[in-house]
Amino acid sequence: MRRYLRTLGYIAGFIGVLLAIVALVRVSSTNQRLTDVREELLMVAQGIRQNDIRSLSTRMENLSTDLSKVSGDLRTLTTDVQGMRTKVDQLGKDLTGLSAKVTAMDSARLEDLTARLNALAKELEGLAGRLARVEETAARVAAL
What we know:
Number of strands: 0
Radius of gyration: 23 Å
Number of helices: 3
Strand content: under 5%
Order of helices and strands: HHH
Low-confidence stretches: none
Distance between the termini: 50 Å
């Protein structure tokens, strides 16, 4: 049973790290695209100043393309964050079910397993906090 709990803890931690990495990559990609949009807007402003209509039209098309990519990235990021929340909630439910099974065991083993379950619960809380920060970052990126 200890191996099962230890393995479950490692799996939960690994999944959490993977989910956090995926979210960070998505946020970074979205941030880069927003930087591209800003650069395109600056180029458009310069084109207006220079009355260069042809380059202005091309830059406006580029800006429109970049904005649609950013919009797609934000939708994907939102979906990913919702999926991560679902997975974290499921891990919490799994730990609750496992905790119920553990209560039937003898007290010496119960104390050890309870400590491990508490550690896993703290990891899940940490993941939930990280997901909240990712959502906040995504909201700030979307607001740009």
